Amino acid sequence: MAIKVLSAESLAHENAKKRLMREAQVAAKLDHPNICAIYDVNEIDSVTFIVMQYVEGETLAERMRSGRLPISLALDVMRQTAEGLAEAHAHGLVHRDIKPQNIMITPRGVVKILDFGLCKQLQTNEAVDNEAPTMSMLSMPGLVIGTIPYMSPEQLRGDPVDEASDIFSLGVTLYEVLAGKHPFK
């Protein structure tokens, strides 16, 4: 198991904490071989944390440091990542931060998508929040989740996001894996 402790300053707003807890609990229901499992989301003595599966291996970003991946490996990694995303999308969840640093490859070649505890739940009874362009790792009104070089145009504009945003980010990652460089310099 791994424990991800969230900083108090990133949870300063009570609404941010509630959203994080709710969305991470929804993500914890995902059960797919290509998604890092979330076991618990909790708060003890004002310390908020996510308990998740410990995944041994290296991130796709670490693997790419030595250059482009062989095409067969690149396609296998991207196929497994797409399968994990499809499972999340089928449950109404959008990751919003697909990038090589959030894709782990185990020693056996199994891909695990990391950081699903910070995803966006699409199907909710609440009004959709208007999100402004800033980087954050929390889902709270007025903030955008993601890493700018991998964000879809709608994320960058602060528009509502859906599955297409993850697909865009996956495409950027696929380009980077195959070409050995980011498409937007």
Q: What does this molecule look like?
A:
With 185 residues, this protein is of the alpha+beta class. The chain is built from five helices and ten strands. The protein has a three-stranded antiparallel sheet with strand order 1-3-2, with helices on one face. Strands 4-6-7 form a three-stranded antiparallel sheet. Strands 5-8 form a two-stranded antiparallel sheet. Strand 2 and strand 3 form a beta hairpin. Helix 3 packs antiparallel against helix 5.
Low-confidence stretches: 124-141
Helix run count? 5
Give me the count of strands. 10
Radius of gyration: 16 Å
How do the strands and helices of this protein lay out in sequence?
Blueprint: E1 2-6, H1 14-27, E2 38-44, E3 47-52, E4 58-59, H2 60-64, H3 71-90, E5 93-94, E6 103-105, E7 111-113, E8 120-121, E9 135-136, E10 144-145, H4 153-157, H5 163-179
Parallel strand pairs: 9-10
Antiparallel strand pairs: 1-3, 2-3, 4-6, 5-8, 6-7
Helix pairs in contact: 3-5
